[in-house]
Amino acid sequence: MAKPNKDELKKVLKEASKNLFKEEGEIKKDFSTEENETIEEWKKQNLIKIEITEFQTAKELLKVTLKGFSNATLLTGEGGIGKSLLTIETIKENINNDDWVYQSGFTTGLSLFKYLYHNRNKKIIVLDDVELFQDNKIINILKSALWDIDKKRLIYYQSTSDKLDVPSVFELQAKLIILCNTIPNEDDKEVSALLSRVIKYEINFSYKQKLEIIQQIINSKKDLSKEQKIRIMEIIQKSTNEATKNFNFRTLEKLIAFIKYDNSKAEDLFKEILETDERI
């Protein structure tokens, strides 16, 4: 077939970006790209019943914090491998909807300080894909948020600015779950001190493991026919390998969008969006 039209490809990819997982026709948002208010919609939806063996360690470490035995769990790993989905579904299994909040994106230490203050009495605060490790004020706030002194976690913010419209010191009751792709300055002294106060775990899948998980996800989808499921797996196995850049579960959602859009064009459209890591 002719090379896919760029506008056509852009349209289909935009639609694919809205979906991470679907169950019985309900859309599961990708919260690294969607607005934070959609979290309330996800809270009301049924649990996604996909048991992925490779997630079990991360799930148990999340539960250590959810059940109050640690102040924070930090999960790292490449984008698109399900950290947000795993975290929120695990929270929904253990915590009432009114007892936790989710936030992605902080630009200043002050904005983080105020957010923690307003949610200080929640059981769990989830910080997802936020730029936590580049700002010393944010790092210092989190260090206080993650460590007890005399069985209290007191958070301070010294400022003469009128933008500080909350108390300059408060006690944080909430536990934290932090999600990020990488920690670029992990060897920095202040960042290292912060990391020493959390349960840190990296989710890292091999290419073979990703294929096995993708097969589970495909099998769970009720909005795909048996023929579509077989075709999707065939294209993935034929078109990807260990050297495929950013091969993750979002890649799968793009292919599903192509299959639904036009099965005859799906493979060629899929190949157009793939990139190869030449080093590998």
In helices, the fraction of residues equals 40-55%
First-last Cα distance: 29 Å
Biggest beta sheet attributes = 5 strands, parallel
User: What radius of gyration results from the CA coordinates?
Assistant: 21 Å
Class derived from helix and strand content? alpha/beta
Mean of all residue-level pLDDT scores: 84
Low-confidence segments, given as residue ranges, are: 20-35
Give the percentage of residues in beta strands. 5-15%
Bulk shape: elongated
Order of helices and strands: HEEHHEHEHEHEEEHEHHHH
Number of helices: 11
- Strand element count: 9
**Major beta sheet, strand line-up:** 4-5-8-3-9
Describe the structure.
The longest helix has 14 residues, at about 205-220. The strands form 3 sheets. A 5-stranded parallel β-sheet has the order 4-5-8-3-9, covered by helices on one side. By secondary structure, the chain is an alpha/beta fold. α6 packs parallel to α7 (about 190-195). The protein has helices at about 5-15, 40-45, 55-65, 85-95, 110-120, 135-145, 190-195, 205-220, 225-240, 250-260, 265-275, and strands at about 20-25, 25-30, 70-75, 100-105, 125-130, 155, 170, 175-180, 200. The model is unreliable at about 20-35 (pLDDT under 50). It contains 11 helices and 9 strands.
